[in-house]
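Q: Predict the assembly, please.
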Amino acid sequence: MPPTVALASDFPLPMSHRVLIVDDEPSIVISLEFLMKQAGHEVSVARNGQDGLEQISAFRPDLVLLDVMLPHRTGFEICQIVREDEALEHVKIVLLTAKGREVDVAKGLALGADAYVTKPFSTKELVHKVSTLLSA
Amino acid sequence: MKHPPPPGPLLAPLAAVVLVLGGLLMGWTLVPPDVQEALGARLAPYRPAFFLALLVLLIAAAVPVAWFRLRLGPGLARLGERLRLVATAPERDLEPPDMPLLNEVHAGAELLATRARTLAQDIAAEIQRSQAAVEAEKQMLEAVTSVVGEGVVVCNAQGQILLYNTRLRGLLEAADAETPLVGLGRSIYGVFQPALIHHALQTLHHRRTQGRPADAVPLVAAHGGRLLQLTLCPIDPAEAKAGFVLVISDITTDASATARRDYALQALTEGLRGPLGSLRAAIENVQAFPDMDAAQRALFHQVIHDEALRLSQRLTTAATALPSPTRRRVPILADDLLSAVQQKTEALLERSVTVPPPAAPTWLQVDSYALTLALTVLLQRVHAQGPSTDLHLRVKPPADPAFVEVELAWTGARPVHPDELATWRTEPLTAGDEHLPDTLQTVIDRHQGALWSRADQAEAGALCLLLPRAAEVPAAPPVRTAASTGRPLYYDAALLQATPDEHPMRHCALSTLTYVVFDTETTGLRPAEGDAVISVGAVRIVNRRLRAEETFDRLVDPRRPVPLASIRIHGIQPSLLKGQPTIGEVLPAFHRFVEDTVLVAHNAAFDLRFLHRDAARCGLTFEHPVLDTLLLSSALLPGHEDHSLDAVAERLGVAVTGRHTALGDALTTGGVFLKLLALLEAEGVTTLEDALTFSQRSPLASLSY
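A: Predicted assembly structure:
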C-alpha cells in the first residue's frame, strides 16, 4: 500500500467552506474536526441525527460528513431528506460509516450521497475527496 | 340379479283352474235353456259330488303354489345367496342344498364354483407373481432412495403422495410424533402450504410457456421449527399433469449457522471499523502535523489509547462468535420472480400490474417464495394507501454489477413515508391466505438486501429493493428429472389417475377413494349417560388395499371409572388407561389421520355418537362421508339374520385378528369392507353416492341408536 499519511504540505489553504460533521463517536469527531479546521473550513458538529438535520438548516453547510448509524435518525434518512429538498441541492454529502457491506454502499449512493467512505479511511484521501467535492 | 322371482309361473296352476272353470261356465251359457233345465234336473243328485271335485281341483292347483312359496322359493334364494358368497370368497365350499330337488342345480353350481375357485387360484398366483416383481422393484427403489441423503417424495398433480423414502419421514415428522404426516395417498399439502407448491408449479408453467427448460424449482420452507430446502422437479417437464418429485434437505443448521456467521461477521467488521477509523485518523494527524500544540497532541494520544483498547475487546468478542462458514445459494431468474409477484398480486387485488419484459436475463440468489410474498405484500400495502393509476414492477439496469435493483413504481398515489415503511418492515408477511412468520425486514436481511422508499413527485413514488445478483448463471439443473432417466417407478401408480379435486367425493368411484376404517372401545353403550371412549383404532385403505403400516392405535384415559362389564368385553384394565392422553388430545390427531377420507365402521352409528359428542367439545367436526359395514352387509345379504362383525367376517372368509381391541376390530372391519366392496360392484353400485343410497335398503337403516 502506498503511504497515505497526509503531510501539512498536502493542505494548501483553499477557499473556506462550511463543513458539518454528524457523528456520535467522539474519537472520530476529534480527528474530523481537526482535519477540516486544518483545511481551513468552518466546522460545526452534531452528535445525533435530529441535531444534524436541524444544523443543516441552521448552519447551512456546503458539505456534510455524515455517519450512518446515528441515534434518532439514520444517515440514510438524513441523506434522503436533504436530497428531496431543492433548497439544499448544493449541499454535498459524504457518508462516513462503519457499515461496509456492499449493499449499504449501493444504497447510500442510490439515495443521493456524493461519496461513501468506509471507516477506517485514509485522512489524506478524505481531505482530498472533500476538497474535490467542494471545488466542483 | 334381483331377489324376488317373478310371480307369473307361481300363479300358473291357479290360472289354469280358473280358465277351465270359465270355459265350462261359458259352454253352459251356450246350451239352450230347455236343455239346461233337463240337464240340471238330471245332474241335481250329483251336485255335491261336483262341488267336491271342484274343491279337490282347487286344492290340487294351490298345493304347488304354496309349496313353491314356502319351501322351494326360500331354498332357491338361499342357494342364490350362497352362490354369491362363493363368487366373493371362492375358497369357501358351497353348502349342500336343503332339498334333493335342487341337487342337479347344486351339482351345476358346484362345477361353476370349482371353475371359479381354480380361476381365483390362478389369478391369485398371477397377482402374487406380479406383486413379487413389484416388491423387488420397490425394494430396489427403496435401496436407491434410502442411500440418497435427501428426503424424496413423488406426488401426482393433485399432491397425493405416491412414493417416499424413509429419510423423508425423518425430515418431516418429529421423532415423538405418533401420527404420521406422510403416507401413501395422503396429501403433501398436509405438510407444506399449498401456496408454496403452487408457486413452484406456476414458475414451471411460466418457463414452459416461455419455451425455457422447466426442470426444477428451488424453494425454502419452514417446517416444524426447521428450515427445509425443497427442489421441485416435474415428472415430465412437458406435461404439468404428470405430477412432480420433491427432493428435500434440512438446511436449518446451515441457515442458522449462516445467519450467526453473517451477524458475527457484520458485528466484527462494523465493530472494528469505528475504532480503527478513529485510531487511524488520530495517528495520521499526529504524523502529519508534528507542530501541533501539546494539548491537541495529548488529546490524540488519549484517542489512540482508548480506541486500541476498544479494538482488542471487540476482536476477542467477535472471534469467539464466528462459526465455520457454510453457504447455500438458490439462483432464480428475476423475470420468474416478478412474473410470480405479478400473478399473485393481480389475483389478490384484481388490478393489473405492469411487468416490462427484461432486457437481458438477470439471475438472483434468493428464497423465491419468501421474496415473492414480500413483494406481493409491498404491492398490497401501496395499493391500500390509495388507488394508484398504474403499478410497475421492473428490474432496473444496475449501477453496481453485484446487485439487482427491483423497482416497484407507481403514479397517481402519494409516495411511502420512511416512517411508514419502517412500520411495514416489522410486520409479518401476509397476503391473502398465505402467511410467513418472518417480517419484511427479516426476509430482506436474509437476502443481504436493502429497501428504501423514493418520492418522485407528490403523486408518484417508488420502493426500491436492492438484491444480490447470482454469481453465475447455473449451467445445469441441480437435479436430474425423473423423465430423463426413463420411466419412473411408483408404489401406487393408480393414484396418478386420482380424482380431480373439483369433484366432490360422493361422485367418486368407490375404487378410487381412500378410506379410514375405525373402531372405538368404550366404557359402556350410553354416551348420553357419560360413557366414554377408552381406545381408538384405525387403518387406512388406499387403492383397495389395507395399509397395515398406516394405522392409528391409541388408548384414552376416560377420566371416569371403567365398569367391570365393559372390561369383560375389551379386556383393557383401568390401570392401563391411567396417564394416557385424554380424548381432547387424541381426537385432533385422529382428525388429522382421517383427513380427506371416507370413514368406515361396523355399526358406525354407535362410534359416531361418541365421536361427534367429543369432537364438539374439542371444537372439531367430522363431516366425512361414512359407510357402515353392518348396513352394507344386511342390504347385500338379506337372507342372513346375523350381521355381527364376527358373523359377517366368518361368512366372507375374513380372518379375525385381535377381536375387541379397537385396532383389531378396525382391521377385521377393513377386511370385511373390501369383500363387501366387491359384492357392491357386482350389484352395479360403483360410486360413493350409490353405496350410501344402497345402505338405506338395509332393514337396519331405519333403526336409531
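Chain A has five helices and five strands. The CA atoms of residues 93 and 113 of chain A lie 5 Å apart.
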